[in-house]
TrEMBL record:
Predominant place of localization: cytoplasm
EC number: 3.6.1.9
Record-linked InterPro entries: ITPase-like_fam, Maf-like
Protein name, UniProt field: Nucleoside triphosphate pyrophosphatase
Organism: Micromonospora vulcania
Amino acid sequence: MSVSLPLRLVLASASPARRKSLQAAGIEPDVLVSGVDESLVVTERAEDLCLELARLKAQAVLTRLSPAADQRTLVIGCDSVLAFDGEILGKPADPADATRRWQRMRGRSGVLHSGHCLIDVTAGRRAEAVASTTVHFADISDDEIAAYVASGEPLAVAGAFTIDGLGGPFVERIEGDPGTVVGLSMPLLRRLLAELGLNITDLWTKIAPGGQSVEPLGSVRS
């Protein structure tokens, strides 16, 4: 006999931006950092690299979980890299590296790839894909680059830029889903959930008046 199970989503990432994206879409994830050494994966294709890292992050967190029998547990791993001038750019090594990158990128464009790996722990199934968005950078000045690098933000993110923080004014426009650049594409997550027989609305939560509790809005049939 099938029973209705509440969904639990575990985000295998320390990224505040990814968590905020989920929260803005009505999803309150648990967070468990994977601890994966990203330097261990080497490939010539940006799409392959970000997807393999997303997969490794999700699997690393999966091995540390003890799913409850009364929940259906999902793990989402994500990773982002920038493809620019035939190179794969993750996080800058240091401020000098971030400065050099911005001196090259300004006034030009690159493609931000974000790999997503969604594992249904309870059902033993997985869905994964890469979302890609073209980013057009503003032709910013040396002083702007210096100030941005000094803020520390470029050192913490793939490609040395954000669109949802201090780096937003330095991006002229994008072609694609903004969530891809932030690091988690909600439309892609919706499609991955559908591959596993789930609706994204099953993950919506409702905060009671006054914020006293969080009540699941959706559940699924197992």
